[in-house]
Design goal:
The strands form four sheets. The protein has an eight-stranded parallel β-sheet, with helices on both faces. A two-stranded parallel sheet has the order 7-10. Strands 8-13 form a two-stranded parallel sheet. It has helices at about 15-25, 55-60, 75-80, 85-105, 125-145, 165-175, 195-205, 225-235, 275-294; strands at about 5-10, 30-35, 45-50, 65-70, 110-115, 145-150, 155, 180, 190, 190-195, 210-215, 220-225, 240-245, 265. It is built from nine helices and 14 strands. It has one domain: 3-Layer(aba) Sandwich (Rossmann fold), CATH 3.40.50.
Length: about 290
Amino acid sequence: MSELAVVFGGSGFLGSHVCDELVRAGFKVRVCDRVESPHLSDGQEMFLCDILDPESMRKAVSGADYVYNFAGLADIDEARDKPIETIQLNVLGNAHILDACREANVKRYVFASTVYVYSEKGSFYRASKQASERIIEAYKERYGIEYSILRYGSLYGRRADMRNGIYRILHSALSQGKVTYSGTGDEQREYIHVRDAAKLSVRILNEEYANQHVILTGPYPYRVRDLMEMVREILGNKPDIEFLNQPLGGHYKITPYGFLPRVGTKLVGESYTDMGQGLLDCLAEMHETEDGQS
């Protein structure tokens, strides 16, 4: 009999891809979110819920073997302007799910954190993830709930929207013929394609990743300037690119690694999506969406 994986935030960008990979791995999947998933497929069932409602959480995790939490507020700029909502969704919501997992005796709780926990940047978003990590560790100490904490880097790929950095760049290039970037272009990111991240997010259910903090980023650092040039080459030396040389606010300059939280082990995949091929696939999705709306 197939094991049941419950995925909070399963209607979203990363969560929906993880749901797909769980089905491919043989799991039954319960997609839990406030909105219906536009990506629901065979082997997935939809469960509408609110992570701030404890009773809703208990029903959502009923019968679950594994629980993933991708829910909450994930936009750094939005979180910076909404501290109370960020704390409610990212910290209290996480605690409600955790407590429901305790009652349901789930085998593993998988939490979507961020490499921002290593940084002084990220404002309330970073702080909410740091707090949630420590709460998860405390639940393990007090109640024995096994966990895997996944610290994601910069994701890109299909199903993204304007909250995603690479999506914004490509959207601006196609719609305006110009990309304006606030920084210098020397900022670095270890971009990872969302499908690669999703596959690794299922792989961590192996016993060796129980009660571990795992870093999930791409294999190579890319300067934003080099990424922009790659986009120009793909689009035939368009669009025009402008760097404003302004501070990036709450965003880090280089993918941070440090010793502030629990040390994390970087999980490396057997293969990764080529960056150029990944960008082409993103552009193909944008054209498909545009054609479907015309």
